[in-house]
Write a structure and sequence with these properties.
alpha/beta, four-stranded parallel sheet
C-alpha cells in the first residue's frame, strides 16, 4: 500500500471535488433544459377570448359572496392578428407581479415561476416578480423577496418549493385578506399568482373578489400530487385533465414499488403493502397500478360503489331489505385481500405487491359513518362550549368517556342521539390505536388526518387474522412445484405416486396442494396410516415432513408509505413542460386583465401540439361542503371516474396482474424519473388511456 494521502490534498483533488460537489451533472443538465412552449406563446401579443360554449351551474352561495367574479367565462389565450400600437404598449407595460406557493410542495412549482418570469421579462425587462416567503404567511405578514434571474436559473426544472418555501395557512378571514391587500398595495403589485391546490385556489377566488376594487388581479394555478383537481363542464368537456405534480409523484412512487416487486419475486417471502398519498381520491393508486402492474391495487371509489349481490339475493328471498349490502365493510375488504393471497400461494407465490390509497378508510361505509359522527360531535362541542375538544380531552380515555356519556343519554337529550349505544359498542371493538386515530385532531381544513393513522396496519391485521382461520381450515396452503416434489421423493427413495395420492388434493397437477384436512404433522401421519403407507408406531418419513413444511404458509409483510418522497421529487419531462406553460398562461391571463381565473392547459390528455392555454373561472367550480361542522364554499375534489377508459382498462387487466397461475408475474418497470430522452413517456398513463376515442 502507498502512503496515506493528506486530507487537504484528497479534498482539493479535482476528482474528489467533482464527485462531492453539491451540484452534479444531472442537476446541471436539468437547470439547462428548456421546456417546450405552446406555439401561441412564441407569436407575440395575445388576447383573451371568451368561450361561452363551456358552461357550469352556478352555486347560489358562490353568486352571493363572489358577485364580481361569478360571471367570468372560460377564456382562451389567442392571437390578435391586428394589434394596435396602444394595445402593444398596454400588453408590454412594466408590471409588478407577486407569486406565492400554498400547501404541500409538488414537482414543477419552480417552473411555474420560471414561466411567469421569462414571459414578463420578455415583454418588459423592467417588470418585477416578488415571491412571498413561507407561503400565505408571507403574504399576510409582508415577507417577500424579489425574484432574480439567478434564483430562477438555479431552480429551473428542479423539485420542491425551496425557492420561496411554502405553508398551509388559510387566508380565511377579513383581517387576513385586508393584511394581504395592504401587502400587495405597499409593493405596488398589479397582480398576484397563487400556486396551490383546491383550497388554495378557493382562497385565490376570495382574494380576487376582495382585491377587485383595488385593481389588483388574482390568478390561481392548479397544484396537487393527488390529481384531484380536474375540471369538466356540465356537458362533460375536459378543461383541466390533471393538476401539476401528479405525474412526477406517481412515477417516483412507481419506481419504488417496482423495486419492491423485484425484491418480492427474488426472496419469495414478503407481501409488500404500499400506501400512497391520496386522502380523498385514488388517482395516484390507479396511476401507480398502471405503471407497475402490482398484484393487487385497491381503488377507493370502487369500494364505495360495492354492492354485495349475495346479501341482496338472500334479503329478497326473505322479503326484507339489507342496507348493509351496500358499501364495502372492513371485514369484507380483508376477505378480498385474503382471496388474492391464497390464490397466489397455491401456485407457490407466497409474496406479492399491494397498493392502497392513503384515504381508503374514507370509502369504507362503517368507518365513514364514524368519521361523520365524530366530526359533528367535535364541531358541536367546540361551538357550544367555545373550547377546543382536543384540549379539553387530551387523552383517549377522556374522549371515549365523553362519547360513552352521549350514548347513555347523559349529554345529548334528543330522542335519537348522534352517538348511540350501537355506535359505542362497534367503536370499542376497534383496536385502541385505531380508535385514537379516528379521534385525532382534524387538520386546518377540518379534514380527518388519514396520514396519522396506520391504515395499512388496520387492514393487514384483519387480513392476518383471517388468514389464520383459513390456515386452520386447510384452505391457505403453499403450492409445491411438481418437479420439486419428484426430486425430493427420489432423493428419499419414496414412491411419489402412492404418497402423492395420500397427501395431495390435486395429484398430477403442476403445483401440488396438500389436502385441506392435513393441517398438522399429526393429521399428516393419520393420512399416511389410513392409506397404509406407514404403521402408527413409525415416524413420518423425513422427505414427507419436508414437503409438508414447505406447504405451510408463513405470511410476512413489509409496509411502506409513499407521499413526501414523491411530492419532493424532481419533475418529469411532462411536468417540466406542463408547469412552464402554466406559468406563461398565468402571465397572459394577467396581461389580458383577467382575475379570479385558474390558469389551465386544455387537451393535456392529447399530444403537446394540441395543448391549449385557457383561464377557468374559479367561482363557477365552487360549492358548499361541510368543513369543521360548517358549510363552506370550496372547489369540489375530483374522484376516479369508474367509467373512464383508464379505470376500465385497469379493471380488465387486474386479474392478469394477480398472476395466480402457472405463468410469471407481469410486473412493469417504469424506470426512474427523468426530464428528457427518447424513452421518457410524455403523459401519465391514465391520461393516455383517456385520450383514446372511438
Amino acid at each position: 500500500m502507498g502512503s496515506e494521502l493528506e486530507l487537504d490534498y484528497l479534498l482539493n483533488h479535482p476528482i474528489a471535488e467533482n464527485v462531492t460537489s453539491d451540484v452534479n451533472i444531472e442537476t446541471i443538465e436539468r437547470r439547462s433544459f428548456s421546456p417546450k412552449k405552446i406555439p401561441i406563446f412564441s407569436q407575440g401579443v395575445s388576447l383573451l377570448k371568451d368561450q361561452p360554449q363551456y358552461s357550469f351551474i352556478n352555486d347560489k352561495e358562490s353568486e352571493r359572496v363572489l358577485p364580481d367574479i361569478i360571471h367570468n367565462q372560460v377564456q382562451k389565450v389567442t392571437i390578435n392578428g391586428q394589434v394596435s400600437e396602444a394595445e402593444k404598449r398596454e400588453f408590454s407595460r412594466k408590471r409588478k407581479i407577486g407569486v406565492v406557493f400554498s400547501g404541500g410542495p409538488a414537482p414543477g412549482g419552480h417552473n411555474v415561476i420560471a414561466g411567469i418570469y421569462d414571459e414578463v421579462k420578455k415583454y418588459n425587462v423592467k417588470s418585477k416578480i416578488f415571491g412571498f416567503l413561507m407561503g400565505p404567511d408571507g403574504l399576510v405578514e409582508s415577507r417577500y423577496t424579489e425574484i432574480t434571474q439567478d434564483m430562477v436559473d438555479a431552480h429551473r426544472n428542479m423539485g420542491g418549493f425551496s425557492m420561496l418555501k411554502t405553508g398551509r395557512t388559510k387566508i380565511d378571514s377579513k383581517k387576513k385578506m385586508d393584511l394581504s391587500l395592504e401587502t400587495c398595495r405597499n409593493l405596488g403589485l398589479d397582480a398576484l399568482v397563487v400556486i396551490g391546490g383546491d383550497d388554495s385556489n378557493t382562497n385565490a377566488a376570495f382574494l380576487a373578489q376582495h382585491f377587485k376594487a383595488s385593481g389588483i388581479k388574482v390568478i390561481g394555478v392548479p397544484k396537487t400530487i393527488d390529481g384531484d383537481i380536474q375540471v369538466k363542464t356540465d356537458q362533460g368537456d375536459v378543461l383541466c385533465a390533471i393538476s401539476f405534480g401528479f405525474h412526477s409523484a406517481a412515477r417516483a412512487f412507481s419506481q419504488n414499488i417496482s423495486n419492491l416487486a423485484n425484491d418480492g419475486k427474488s426472496t419469495v417471502k414478503y407481501w409488500h403493502v404500499c400506501k400512497v398519498m391520496g386522502r380523498v381520491a385514488s388517482h395516484l393508486t390507479l396511476e401507480s397500478a398502471l405503471q407497475t402492474h402490482a398484484n393487487l391495487s385497491l381503488i377507493g371509489e370502487e369500494l364505495a360503489e360495492y354492492v354485495d349481490q349475495d346479501r341482496l339475493k338472500k334479503a329478497k328471498e326473505n322479503k326484507t331489505v339489507d342496507y348493509n349490502a351496500f358499501g364495502m365493510t372492513l371485514r369484507h375488504l380483508s376477505r378480498v385481500i385474503c382471496d388474492t393471497i391464497v390464490r397466489r400461494a397455491a401456485f407457490g407465490k407466497n409474496y406479492g405487491v399491494m397498493i392502497v390509497p392513503e384515504g381508503i378508510l374514507e370509502f369504507i361505509n362503517e368507518i365513514q359513518v364514524f368519521i361523520i359522527k365524530l366530526n359533528k360531535i367535535i364541531a358541536e362541542y367546540n361551538t357550544i362550549h367555545d373550547l377546543d375538544f382536543h384540549r379539553s380531552f387530551p387523552v383517549l380515555t377522556a374522549k371515549l368517556d365523553y362519547l360513552r356519556r352521549i350514548s347513555q343519554g347523559m349529554i345529548d337529550t334528543t330522542p335519537f342521539p348522534i352517538w348511540n349505544l350501537r355506535d359505542d359498542e362497534l367503536f370499542n371493538q376497534l383496536p385502541p390505536f385505531f380508535r385514537e386515530g379516528l379521534l385525532v385532531e382534524r387538520d386546518l381544513h377540518g379534514n380527518f388526518q388519514f396520514s396519522q393513522v396506520k391504515t395499512e396496519k388496520i387492514i393487514m391485521d384483519m387480513v392476518k387474522e383471517y388468514l389464520g382461520v383459513l390456515k386452520e381450515q386447510g384452505i391457505y396452503k403453499i403450492g409445491i412445484e411438481a418437479e420439486e416434489y419428484q426430486v425430493i421423493m427420489a432423493a428419499g427413495h419414496l414412491d411419489p405416486d402412492s404418497y402423492g395420492a395420500a397427501i395431495f388434493r390435486n395429484p398430477g397437477a403442476p403445483y401440488l396442494l396438500v389436502k385441506e384436512n392435513i393441517i398438522s404433522q399429526k393429521t399428516l401421519k393419520q393420512a399416511l396410516v389410513s392409506n397404509k403407507l406407514m404403521d402408527g408406531d413409525d415416524s413420518v418419513p423425513a422427505p414427507i415432513v419436508d414437503i409438508y413444511k414447505k406447504s405451510e404458509p408463513n405470511f410476512k409483510t413489509q409496509t411502506h408509505f409513499y407521499g413526501y418522497d414523491g411530492r419532493g421529487s424532481d419533475p418529469t419531462h411532462f411536468d417540466c413542460n406542463y408547469t412552464y406553460n402554466l406559468g406563461m398562461t398565468a402571465f397572459h391571463l394577467l396581461a389580458g386583465n383577467a382575475t379570479g381565473q385558474m390558469a389551465a392547459i386544455r387537451n393535456l390528455e392529447l399530444g403537446f401540439d394540441q395543448w391549449e392555454p385557457i383561464g377557468i373561472p374559479i367561482a363557477k367550480l365552487m360549492h358548499l361542503e361541510e368543513r369543521k361542522g360548517k358549510l363552506e364554499l370550496v372547489i369540489e375534489k375530483s374522484l376516479v371516474d369508474l367509467n373512464s377508459n383508464a379505470f376500465r382498462a385497469y379493471k380488465a387487466l387486474r386479474e392478469k396482474w394477480v398472476a395466480a397461475d402457472l405463468g410469471p408475474d407481469h410486473y412493469r418497470q417504469p424506470g426512474p424519473v427523468r426530464f428528457s430522452g427518447e424513452t421518457e413517456e410524455d403523459r401519465p398513463i391514465t391520461l393516455v388511456l383517456n385520450s383514446i376515442r372511438a
